[in-house]
């Protein structure tokens, strides 16, 4: 609905973001092209359900996550920061532009946020094989090569 309005209006957000429980993360959302007046909110989708995640001014009955806030909140930048992350915060976050207060005009493609447990260094683990291989190659290439013919001839004892 309303997709034909404002054909040059775009919402750009990164496809994937990784973070760690207990830390914070910034979900980037950039608006470009001419768009109407109207608020921008963030929705979170997980397990086939979607709900309001963040809005600057929640209406009656709306629940906005208190750990989230706009970073700049300029006309073009609607990025939010989420603090005190938990693994349950994993999901897909949509930056949604409204036309006026109640009509959804367009949304970004969604940023898939993966929040890892603090004590599971997944990123390091995935790099381990490469590191090990690299060290192996290094040690291999530094082995002193025995060149044939340079050893002094053994004196044969009679």
Automatic annotation (TrEMBL):
It comes from Latimeria chalumnae (Coelacanth). Gene3D superfamilies: Immunoglobulins. The keyword Protein biosynthesis does not apply. It comes from the Eukaryota. The keyword Glycoprotein applies. Residues 54-73 are annotated as: Disordered. Pfam families: V-set (PF07686). Residues 7-95 form the Ig-like domain. Residues 62-73 have a biased composition (Basic and acidic residues). Keywords: Disulfide bond, Glycoprotein. This is Ig-like domain-containing protein. InterPro entries: Ig-like_CS_Receptor (IPR051755), Ig-like_dom (IPR007110), Ig-like_dom_sf (IPR036179), Ig-like_fold (IPR013783), Ig_sub (IPR003599), Ig_V-set (IPR013106).
């Amino acid at each position: 609905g309303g997709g034909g309005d404002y054909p040059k209006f775009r919402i750009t957000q990164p496809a994937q973001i990784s973070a760690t429980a207990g830390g914070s993360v910034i979900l980037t959302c950039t608006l470009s092209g001419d768009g109407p007046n109207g608020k921008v909110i963030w929705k979170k989708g997980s397990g086939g359900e979607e709900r309001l995640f963040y809005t600057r001014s929640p209406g009656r009955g709306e629940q906005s996550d208190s750990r989230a806030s706009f970073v700049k909140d300029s006309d073009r930048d609607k990025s939010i920061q989420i603090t005190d992350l938990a693994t349950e915060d994993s999901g897909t976050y949509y930056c949604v532009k409204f036309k006026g207060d109640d009509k959804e005009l367009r949304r970004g493609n969604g940023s898939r946020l993966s929040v890892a447990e603090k004590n599971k260094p997944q990123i390091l683990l995935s790099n381990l094989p490469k590191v090990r291989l690299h060290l192996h190659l290094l040690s291999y290439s530094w082995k002193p090569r025995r060149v044939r013919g340079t050893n002094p001839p053994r004196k044969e004892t009679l």
